[in-house]
Amino acid sequence: MPVGKIIKSLSGFYYVLSDGEVYQCRGRGNFRKKKVTPLVGDIVEFKAENRQEGYILSINERKNELIRPPIANVDQALIVTSAVHPDFNALLLDRFLVLVEEKRIEPFIVISKMDQLDHAQMEMMENYKTLYEKIGYPVILSAVNDTEAMEVIQSHLANRTTVIAGQSGVGKSSLLNSIDSRLCIDTDEISESLGRGKHTTRHVELYEISKGLVADTPGFSSLEFGELETDQLAECFPEFVEVQNDCKFRGCLHFKEPKCAVKAAVDTGEISKQRYDHYVHFLNEIQNRKPRY
């Protein structure tokens, strides 16, 4: 039985990439009975008489799944943030990082518009680059027509399935269009109060780019921690994970507990005070969110 990956879902049809060919398939009726919906990114077994008439027979277990955008088996997220216009927002960047860590998606960070900075701003971005690279996140500083940065970004895309994340105005469209003109991301402006955008893309599609697959949808349309619990939040901060086994209390939330290894690491400068403050901000948000019924 042939195996492939769904690269597009549109009007009840699923387009499956297998051995360099794309097959138009429908889902089996028992998927509806089981309330299972095939997603872009799913690895599936299918049967096809020809490239226009196929049926998806089974869906392999997913390693992760996003609701918005609806996509599965994502390897990494390219998080685009700008140095200016809009100004660099470390709290928003850390929010994106938590969201992708929760889904066990590897992030890499692109800071755009570096060509618009003065010396002091440039130094600040270099310091942020050092901070996030110390945690283990790749960081690329990018400017307009920066061929070297583009080559590094393209090397990250190879052999991976990638989604894009970042608020409006940070340069996602120009960045991706410079990599491949087929990728044209279009979003409405993000509400400043809610921090989320409404996407005008009507379907998710994976494009073969730089020997990898890139989704043409601009990442997360909700930036809320809808599924994350308080005891899971610290797992989304890799630098906390490194030291938290030395906390006195099992299940330490690294907030008000005594003899906390994470807070001790903040005091010594091993963990960024700003990152810790953002953790506390998110912790309070999760603790105070309204229950869903």
Automatic annotation (TrEMBL):
Positions bound to GTP: 112-115, 166-174
GO biological process assignments: ribosomal small subunit biogenesis
EC number: 3.6.1.-
Residues in EngC GTPase domain copies: 72-221
Gene3D superfamilies assigned: Nucleic acid-binding proteins, P-loop containing nucleotide triphosphate hydrolases, Probable gtpase engc, domain 3
Annotated Zn(2+) binding sites: 247, 252, 254, 260
UniProt superkingdom: Bacteria
InterPro entries: G_CP_dom, NA-bd_OB-fold, P-loop_NTPase, Ribosome_biogen_GTPase_RsgA, RsgA_GTPase_dom, RsgA_N
Limits of the CP-type G domain: 63-223
Co-factor note (free text): Binds 1 zinc ion per subunit.
The entry's keywords: Cytoplasm, GTP-binding, Hydrolase, Metal-binding, Nucleotide-binding, Ribosome biogenesis, RNA-binding, rRNA-binding, Zinc
GO molecular function: GTP binding; GTPase activity; metal ion binding; rRNA binding
Keyword Cell membrane tagged: no
One of the record's GO cellular component terms: cytoplasm
Pfam families found in the cross-reference section: RsgA_GTPase (PF03193), RsgA_N (PF16745)
Cofactor: Zn(2+)
Subcellular localization, as worded in the UniProt entry: Cytoplasm
Subunit details: Monomer. Associates with 30S ribosomal subunit, binds 16S rRNA.
The protein's role, per its UniProt record: One of several proteins that assist in the late maturation steps of the functional core of the 30S ribosomal subunit. Helps release RbfA from mature subunits. May play a role in the assembly of ribosomal proteins into the subunit. Circularly permuted GTPase that catalyzes slow GTP hydrolysis, GTPase activity is stimulated by the 30S ribosomal subunit.
Similarity field: Belongs to the TRAFAC class YlqF/YawG GTPase family. RsgA subfamily.
Listed HAMAP family: GTPase_RsgA (MF_01820)
Protein name according to UniProt: Small ribosomal subunit biogenesis GTPase RsgA
Protein species of origin: Halobacillus karajensis
Name of the gene encoding the protein in the UniProt record: rsgA_1
